[in-house]
Amino acid sequence: MDRRDFLSALAAAPLLSHPSLVDLVRGASRAGTPADMGLQTGVDEAYALVLGTVQDAGFPQVGCYTDRCDQGRALHSRGQGRFVSSLAVVQPAAERFYLVDATPDITRQLDLIALAPFRRRAAQRRPFDGIFLTHAHIGHYLGLALLGNEGLGIRDTPVYCTEAMVDFLSSNQPWQYLAQQGRIVWHPLALDHWHRIDEHLEVQLWKVPHRDEFADTVGFVFRGPSASLLFLPDINSWGAWDRNVSHAVASVDVALLDASFWSLEELPGRSMDDLPHPLIPQTMDALQAVVDRGDARVILTHLNNSNPALDDNGPERREITRRGFEVAREGMRIPL
Ligand SMILES: [Zn+2]
Ligand SMILES: [Zn+2]
User: Fold this and answer.
1) Is residue 321 in a domain?
2) What is the pLDDT of residue 3?
3) What does pTM read for this prediction?
4) I need a surface site. Which of 89, 175, 230, 329 has the fewest CB within 10 A?
């Protein structure tokens, strides 16, 4: 089996191996010690855990009763729901946890971090060693609100983002109040060079073109002891980026990329010149050679509720798999 066949098999499999939320939570409440945690995860190595895979407003979306959104409701009722795009970076041996984008689904998606040390740290109001935020659209930072007074009430937690994002959050409520109360601590990071977060994790911020009404937008490149991962959930188009997308993706081991839409049919009234996101077929065309060479794993995320690639058995998903690409799924674990 060559790499592409292997990836195709992998991409076809995640739902079979995807544990339901109920199973994950049961596992966490049984586990009581770091040794239990090791048994449960089977690894001590760092990894990124996919906490969410859909566009800012979730799946289903509020008041949306299309067949596809009803499928989204059915997934939630089976404990296999999709949440707004987000990651956790997990270092099991060090018992460190980072959150990448704080979404409106934060309450339920954090249950996917089914590890006893995470729960112990949450009880101490300090579950995360840091929170990374890509930009100021609702799916990417509103979840911070649930970590304040009325919710978890975290303390002393670094928030890593751009200077412009800090300016926006620190001059608006309730985010300013979170900082005043000492729940979060601003850590603006400069673009385009490595920042050491701890002895096992470095990060770079890559600015991307996007609708920047309030601040700016970045993708994060995380580098762990064994691999690097690009998380880039929102971009207007690959062509408008100041980086060459195939060079950028080939420079990392795994890329989780904006896959909001499959086709223009999902965007009535928009033209090809007026697209707010790259279409999945455009992304696959731009990166086919990178995937064929095995330079990087490309995983599609941030799917809109209109996107037919949400259908696990549809022709669009088969096309994605055939071409060697993957669709992100909650509970996916990506070695770092
Ligand atoms: Zn978004
Ligand atoms: Zn956005």
Assistant:
1) yes
2) 43
3) 0.89
4) 329
